[in-house]
Design goal:
Elements (H helix, E strand, L loop, with lengths): L18 H4 L2 H8 L6 E5 L7 H7 L2 E6 L2 H12 L7 E5 L12 E7 L8 H11 E12 L16 H10 L5 E4 L4 E7 L1
Parallel strand pairs: 1-2, 1-4, 2-3, 4-5
Antiparallel strand pairs: 5-7, 6-7
Length: 188
């Protein structure tokens, strides 16, 4: 069962400085091994917590979000940021991503997978848009009680996420950034 979709009216929470204590964009970019020539899909980009830092270091970022309002907030933030003119804004679900095949060198889906109703379709799409031999990184909240993040009944444990990767033909590596946040990566 998928969790509830994040409300754009709460978008300011996504930029709360406390988030950096749990996970910084720099940590994620290191884990994703981004290169200056990369085209990166930020799946569930929201208002750009990862998109804008990525835009500073890679050639192209595809900011994908199901909520146009979130992408509008991102577009506004990007317009106030130097070097953020390399972002394509894509209104799309993750079960049918409005991007061409093999367009991304890397993809990140941060704190959004627990909201996706059909993970099999989503993983098919991830594998379709990422170039062969390149990397997918999914960040999620560990299934523990805490103030930040979704309710515990909407969370996906790192063990379950590893299983989901395996069920979709990927060989996952799990890394805990801290007790609350984990990343699962795989080469597509």
């Amino acid at each position: 069962m998928a969790g509830k979709r994040f409300k754009p009216s709460k978008a300011d929470r996504l930029l709360d400085p406390k988030r950096r204590e749990f996970i910084s964009p720099e940590q994620v970019m290191t884990e994703l091994d981004v290169k200056a020539t990369d085209h990166v899909a930020d799946l569930g980009a929201g208002n750009g917590y990862f998109t804008l830092p990525l835009a500073e270091v890679v050639e192209k970022v595809y900011a994908v979000d199901i909520e146009k309002q979130m992408l509008d907030l991102l577009r506004k933030r990007a317009s106030e940021t130097d070097g953020a003119d390399n972002i394509d804004y894509v209104v799309s679900s993750l079960e049918q991503i409005n991007l061409p095949d093999r367009v991304a060198d890397k993809a990140i889906a941060a704190f959004v997978i627990h909201e996706v109703p059909d993970l099999t379709k989503a993983f098919q799409e991830f594998k379709r848009i990422i170039k062969p031999g390149q990397k997918l990184l999914i960040l999620e909240w560990e299934a523990i009680e805490m103030d930040m993040g979704p309710p515990i009944d909407e969370r996906i444990s790192s063990a379950k996420m590893k299983q989901i990767f395996e069920e979709n033909g990927l060989e996952p590596e799990v890394q805990h950034f801290n007790e609350a946040v984990y990343a699962v990566t795989a080469t597509v």
